[in-house]
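The records we work with from here on pair a chain with its fold. A complete example follows; check for yourself that the lines match position by position.
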Amino acid sequence: MRAVVIDETGGPEVLQLRDVERGEPDDGEVLVEVHAASVNPIDHKRRSGTVQGHLPAILGSDISGTVVASRADEFGEGDEVFGLAASGAYAEFALARESVIAHKPAALDHAQAAALPVAGMTAWQALFDRAQLERGQTAVIAGAAGGVGHFAVQLAKHAGAVVTGIGSDHNRDFVIGLGADRYVDYTREAPAEAISDADVALDTVGGDVTAALLQTVRSGGVLVVIANAPPEREAQQRGVRAELLVMSPAREQLARLAELVASGAVRPEISRTLPLAEVAEAHRMSESGHTRGKIVLAVRS
């Protein structure tokens, strides 16, 4: 099969599309012919060496495709599935464990389904598992137009929260269109000057944004961060619970997210769809930190 492999860490130029042996499923696994894969920040962090991993490696986690061989009880040949690849997603075929894939609803195309797993489950777990967001509460999402952020805005609104998105001005209309009740342009206004009583804040950006976002949360509220360590001391001084989220995949959440997309309650925003051969450009776009929604790789036309 053809796959994108890295033999060493570095810039996008280390991504090599070449022929490799495809694997065969073990007990509880399926082999998926990949139609689409999506790009997540962890991918370029692994490629650059910011996050360590074994080499050589096929990068990527999110896949959508068709089962071509199965040793799993709940999935058979011909089933259309989406979820997380165990063997790397940037490839024509990928192995996946049955515990981290779900049946793809007919209403979703493969690009939409591939955009969901990592970003969708991260948003879900941040809002509901960690922050325990409830109807009527206020939620603030930093990086509201990004991969995780744009799902978080929609999920929080669907849950009945009052939602404020934070980002640059050129994403204002997009985020309001997702259902946000309010938008703060951080280039013109400090978030803490606009918001001071949020029940829940989700930081998808990291860096200086984390400290700024903490100031928007009321005493007794929750700050969830996904990009760096939470400011525990400062949070404790404000009476805020600060949590670091590392996403844990769950098939039930994948299925629930798919239902929400199929019903129209949540929609994946796909900023670009690129062929697998243009994966280096996809990484450059992802590393810019200014991508709206998700970048998807079309593996099979």
The mean pLDDT is 96.
